[in-house]
Write a structure and sequence with these properties.
Distance between the termini: 11 Å
Helix content: 40-55%
Structural class: mainly alpha
Order of helices and strands: HEHHEH
Number of strands: 2
Radius of gyration: 12 Å
Largest sheet: 2 strands, parallel
């Protein structure tokens, strides 16, 4: 959805400008064949299993959608 919706892309860009880190799960993005499009939006596309576990253990605030 993000790859096709200009309004959402603008919102993500504003979040990035505020210093918010945006990640996408590579396994999921590859499954939907959108990794290159997400990377063009400056989204960090990587396998998230281990990093997500670390974020949760460190009590980071995680928003998932």
């Amino acid at each position: 959805m993000l790859c096709e919706d200009a309004e959402l892309q603008e919102y993500i860009e504003k979040m990035q400008q505020e210093g918010i880190s945006i990640f996408a799960c590579k396994a999921c993005a590859d499954m939907y064949d959108v990794s290159p499009q997400l990377e063009k939006l400056n989204i960090d596309v990587k396998f998230m299993g281990e990093p997500l576990s670390e974020y949760l253990q460190k009590d980071y605030k995680v928003i998932t959608f």
